[in-house]
């Protein structure tokens, strides 16, 4: 905070000095790189941007030009880009924030820089604000511009990284929105482009702002266990060093420590505490090969040598040398058993492979003299861009579906399968025979009835493994089925299936619309928006199109209930969200109204808050015993007091409360960032909430008594139900509790773990 105050209180001369020093540091970094030294055009771009942004400051108080300089610094120093990218980064906000146009940039700096600046302007953060799905729409534009020049997306990632590094000056609701977008889109995108270092930093920064307490706790645990890891690293690597020295290899050994976000992710997915994450430490062997052609053989020579020192895990050899990942990553991963009884992963790679692992595709780039063109070693990336293009050719009507489709491609790790003729095809892991069919051709996919995998007949949903040989079987009478969407995993297959279903759906919709119009006319009604809205509400359909489709395929049969609704004679049902929430909160008070940010808002017939323009989205909302029944708690994550939470303003202007880590909330942050609110708990341990704990251990006499004692002795929480099953001396159980908050759950889990013969205790989310 003091630093921010300092920036606000700086004199004009101090600000000018700060800018000059930052630019000089950028020039020094560029001059130390392997790029051609085109300092003149960089200086020209800096002076132009400085003049254009003159007098403008960021929220932190520093001159605005510091942001473009920082983005250019990241592009140069951390990704290794050259003068064209540095100039584009310096100019990236000029067209959007000032009166200059893309034509002006083209006239002064040439068409290439202007094209990149134009691409960056199209996908600017400035319009991510209040528009629904603006983020997803911009992401489409972003991907469209990628095929023109990949530097657009790289500079965009640099821009996002600097925004994340300076996120502390933003209000909490903006922090959640930006951190959510970053985890949902930019981190996986950086990963897909091979920018491992940047991906890790983006993930950690997002994690830090979304879950500050958990982030701090993991950092403290990492610091407190650092000495143990150093001892383990030294003991484990000593024999390896001796062997590599004997072989005459020029090498460097590095300890790779798992990032806080990766650790937290594993804790969530595996339901284990920090102490049970055993792969926090990995070892990297980075060597300079004697010849470039022989570097793959040298990796295997090192592997053979170190596997004589330590026993290798037979199932954990990962060969990314002969089949690099789609983002260009090459290395040999082997897991060895240390003398301390711990499995440790060793990553073997040459200095060139290491540079690609850190800088991604940028490390491949060589520019033709004078033309600034990219060398033709981006085939893998172009394949990926081609897939994105195919999705964009048939865009989803729902922006969230589009983001999900893209995410499927971003996160994919690859498997290799063969066609009947022996051609090798790269596909994402977990893909099915149907995915493969669509990968080959839309006709094959839409008429697929099954497949032969390694000459054995399998269904469409059969998951493929690396090395499988696959033959697709088709029939002209086969039609695309809606259930196919549930078991395909590639973006291409999903988008094609949905496109075919949409075509068929439009025909059914048209039929349904005609039937509805005829029915309304026969009952003296016209097909107006209000009539359609009433029928949609009655049949719980979101859109008019869904209603038409349901009538067209006879899911809805129009009758007396519909007429009663239209005549206003049907009794209204209570709000389903509120009634479902009542099972989690047994007694709710409606009388006292705490003066918080949302209470001043109006309420609907169900007592739910209805947000209007007076709500200050920068201020947090407080959920208390007095107002908890005025919020919606959807069934996706069931937050309880003590959970990191956020609010979301839905389409009816009600406020939903989600856990910040909820997968539904992740989508909402990315697509509807302007509707996110900071939510805080103001509870006083009066209400009870449901929690479920699973236990496992060695069965013995008195175990059930010990478990019951822990729960009944602690905190006054109540045990609703306990089920325990034993088999051959091992027991597994499930305890359903009523607790006041997250702290109750943590204390109970901690005490259950101390019971003798208890092996595993975890909460079921």
Short description:
With 765 residues, this protein is α+β, with helices and mostly antiparallel strands. The protein folds into 5 domains: 2-210, Hypothetical protein af1432, CATH 1.10.3210; 219-364, Beta Polymerase, domain 2 (2-Layer Sandwich), CATH 3.30.460; 380-499, Roll (Ubiquitin-like (UB roll)); 576-682, no CATH class; 689-764, ACT domain (Alpha-Beta Plaits, 2-Layer Sandwich).
In terms of topology, how is this protein built?
Elements: H1 2-9, H2 12-31, H3 39-52, H4 66-77, H5 83-90, H6 94-97, H7 102-109, H8 111-122, H9 134-146, H10 151-165, H11 172-192, H12 196-210, H13 212-224, H14 226-246, E1 250-257, H15 260-270, E2 281-288, H16 295-309, E3 318-319, E4 332-337, E5 343-350, H17 351-359, H18 379-393, H19 399-411, E6 414-418, E7 424-428, H20 433-440, H21 442-446, E8 448-453, E9 456-458, E10 470-474, H22 491-522, H23 529-538, H24 544-552, H25 560-566, H26 576-582, E11 602-603, E12 609-610, E13 621-624, E14 645-649, E15 655-659, H27 663-671, E16 676-682, E17 689-698, H28 703-713, E18 718-727, E19 730-739, H29 742-753, E20 758-764
Parallel strand pairs: 2-5, 13-16
Antiparallel strand pairs: 1-2, 3-4, 4-5, 6-7, 8-9, 8-10, 11-12, 14-15, 14-16, 17-19, 17-20, 18-19
């Amino acid at each position: 905070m003091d630093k921010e105050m300092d920036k606000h209180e700086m004199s004009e001369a101090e600000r000018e000095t700060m800018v000059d020093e930052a630019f000089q540091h950028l020039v020094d970094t560029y001059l130390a790189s392997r790029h051609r030294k085109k300092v003149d055009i960089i200086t020209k771009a800096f002076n132009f941007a400085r003049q254009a942004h003159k007098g403008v400051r960021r929220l932190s108080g520093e001159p605005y030009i510091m942001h473009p300089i920082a983005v250019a610094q990241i592009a140069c120093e951390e990704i290794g880009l050259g003068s064209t990218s540095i100039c584009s980064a310096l100019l990236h906000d000029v067209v959007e924030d000032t009166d200059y146009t893309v034509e002006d940039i083209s006239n002064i700096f040439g068409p290439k820089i202007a094209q990149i600046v134009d691409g960056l302007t199209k996908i600017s953060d400035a319009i991510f604000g209040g528009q629904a799905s603006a983020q997803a729409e911009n992401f489409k534009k972003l991907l469209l511009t990628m095929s023109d020049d990949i530097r657009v997306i790289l500079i965009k990632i640099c821009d996002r990284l600097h925004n994340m590094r300076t996120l502390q000056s933003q209000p909490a609701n903006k922090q959640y929105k930006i951190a959510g977008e970053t985890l949902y889109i930019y981190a996986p995108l950086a990963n897909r482009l091979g920018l491992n270092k940047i991906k890790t930093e983006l993930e950690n920064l997002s994690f830090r702002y979304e879950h500050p307490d958990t982030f701090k706790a993991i950092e403290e645990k990492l610091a407190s266990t650092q000495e143990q890891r150093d001892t383990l690293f030294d003991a484990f690597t000593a024999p390896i060093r001796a062997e590599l020295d004997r072989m005459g290899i020029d090498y460097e050994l590095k300890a790779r420590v798992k990032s806080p976000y990766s650790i937290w992710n594993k804790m969530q997915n595996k339901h284990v505490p920090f102490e049970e994450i055993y792969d926090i430490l990995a070892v990297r062997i980075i060597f300079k090969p004697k010849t470039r052609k022989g570097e793959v053989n040298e990796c295997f020579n090192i592997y053979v040598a170190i596997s004589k020192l330590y026993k290798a895990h037979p199932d954990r050899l990962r060969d990314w040398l002969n089949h690099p990942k789609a983002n260009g990553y090459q290395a040999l991963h082997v897991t060895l058993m240390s003398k301390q009884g711990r499995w440790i992963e060793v990553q073997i790679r040459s200095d060139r492979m290491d540079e690609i692992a850190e800088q991604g595709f940028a490390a491949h780039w060589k520019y033709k003299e004078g033309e600034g063109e990219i060398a033709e070693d981006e085939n893998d990336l172009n394949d990926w861009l081609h897939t994105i293009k195919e999705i964009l050719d048939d865009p989803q009507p729902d922006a969230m579906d589009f983001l999900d489709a893209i995410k499927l491609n971003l996160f994919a790790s690859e498997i290799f399968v063969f066609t009947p003729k022996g051609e090798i095809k790269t596909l994402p892991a977990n893909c099915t025979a149907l995915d493969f069919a669509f990968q080959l051709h839309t006709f094959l996919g839409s008429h697929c009835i099954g497949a032969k995998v390694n000459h054995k007949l399998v269904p469409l949903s059969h998951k493929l493994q690396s090395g499988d040989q696959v033959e697709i079987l088709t029939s002209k009478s086969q039609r695309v089925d809606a259930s196919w969407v549930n078991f395909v995993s590639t973006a291409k297959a999903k988008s094609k299936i949905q496109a075919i279903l949409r075509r068929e759906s439009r025909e059914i919709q048209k039929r349904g619309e005609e039937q509805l119009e005829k029915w309304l006319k026969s009952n003296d009604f016209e097909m107006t928006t209000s009539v359609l809205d009433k029928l949609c509400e009655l049949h719980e359909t979101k859109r008019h199109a869904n209603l038409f489709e349901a009538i067209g395929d006879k899911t809805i049969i129009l009758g007396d209930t519909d007429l009663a609704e239209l005549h206003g004679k049907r009794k209204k049902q209570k709000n389903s969200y509120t009634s479902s929430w009542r099972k989690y909160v047994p007694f709710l008070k409606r009388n006292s109204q705490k003066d918080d940010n949302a209470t001043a808002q109006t309420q609907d017939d169900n007592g739910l808050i209805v947000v209007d323009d007076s709500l200050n989205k920068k201020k947090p909302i407080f959920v208390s015993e007095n107002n908890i029944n005025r919020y919606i708690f959807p069934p996706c994550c069931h937050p309880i007091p003590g959970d990191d939470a956020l609010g979301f303003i839905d389409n009816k202007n009600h406020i939903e409360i989600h856990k910040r880590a909820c997968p539904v909330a992740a989508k909402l942050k990315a697509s509807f960032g302007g509707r996110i609110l900071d939510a805080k708990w103001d509870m006083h341990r009066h209400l009870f909430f449901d929690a479920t704990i699973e236990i496992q251990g060695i069965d013995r006499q008195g175990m059930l008594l010990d478990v019951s004692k822990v729960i009944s002795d602690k905190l006054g929480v109540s045990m609703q139900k306990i089920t325990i099953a034993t088999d051959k001396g091992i027991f597994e159980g499930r305890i359903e509790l009523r607790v006041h908050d997250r702290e109750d759950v943590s204390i109970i889990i901690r005490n259950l773990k101390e019971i003798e013969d208890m092996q595993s205790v975890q909460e079921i989310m």
